[in-house]
Fold this protein.
Amino acid sequence: MQPSGLPATKPPTESVGLAPAGGLLLVDKPAGITSHDVVLIARRVYGERSIGHLGTLDPFATGLLVLLLGRSTRLATFLDTEPKTYEAVISYGRETETDDATGETTREAAPPSATAVKTAIAQLTGPISQLPPAYSAKSVDGTRAYDAARRGEPLELTAVVVTVHEWNVREMLEQSLTAEIVCSGGTYIRALARDLGRLSASAAHLSALRRTAIGNFNVRDAYTLDALRENAPALTPLRVVAGD
């Protein structure tokens, strides 16, 4: 069954030339692989070297990855300004070196009160100054932050201004918080989890993350990796992406 809102699947007729004018494809990335792994799969399926994507998802994260193929890659800068929507689970009690569940514990603290969490969420809404995680793709003088952190020589990163449009709290438990977060591009949800813990006089890390939307693109309309490999779905044409 095809996702709603996307063109019908068609089998490839040749390895190159499926979308000579370029196009867009929505993929539901599973956990355990990188965003670049998805790009490599798409390159093999479509025979197209020029493929970009909007917003990297960490390997442990799942959800919407918007691929831009061929000439549509020129729209990346424009489309990447669209707000991004995530479903996040933030766990209390420990902070980690990666700000998520994959890293070693760096600090422990008692869970925060509900009042402290609500106050912290208010402080983390709107334009905020955010320090990127030590393990991130940020670079200083050509050195990636995650490479330096793995060597035990973390970089001095600079805080950047990002916008958190809203937090929709789904569940607030003693040990965790589940929320839908809508934010600007460039926002690290891992850093939000870290800062939520600190601002609520506790410690916290991101334990689960799923991206559900980028602007009007929704994960409900995305293809699984199996569908991508088996059917080579038709791309959304460049003229549709550009709104012509």
